């Protein structure tokens, strides 16, 4: 694996780890296009991908993808066998299966809470099959959603696509505190509770004592208080003055 490609992947992985909380094992969604390409090109994705992403990975697919491969007949029988080896993630189409591209797109809705990667196969030359066209359309739709890394296989070479403009714009809004996704809010609350930073109800905040100068009231000059004898003498004088006037 080239040093330049590995540095490229490491830089992009840092972006998703720091801004979208991607953690090992990385969940990689695969579709029928890739399964067929892996069979034809003898791609050892299970062995190569962890080294490229510098972390443990889990390859997974959905029941709709397997159903789609089954409906396409014997030509994709080998691709179906490959897809069945991956972990099958539950989707919302148990009773009414949909196309593989529609199903995978639904798996990354609502901010991609399960932190899925999307893995696709692209041909460098030649005409693509109908499945490849669907896969290209799916990749374009994925790029319109923030926080979803795209992995491509081009001529047996893995390439981690750079963050889409949607992901870059989303991170810029986060940095300016204009937007906080709900799953991040919940994660922050859970983390604070775990660390004991959230105060229980009824608990009063303790005011910090600030170091300051002397009390300004204590600096005022004390007023001279009249003694009780002085007050009695002054009242006696007033009474005498009143008597003289009355006479």
UniProtKB/TrEMBL annotation:
The keyword Nucleotidyltransferase does not apply. Residues 205-224 form the UTP23 sensor motif region domain. Residues 237-247 have a biased composition (Basic residues). InterPro entries: Fcf1/UTP23, PIN-like_dom_sf, UTP23_sensor. GO terms for biological process: rRNA processing. Involved in rRNA-processing and ribosome biogenesis. This is rRNA-processing protein UTP23 homolog. The gene is Utp23.
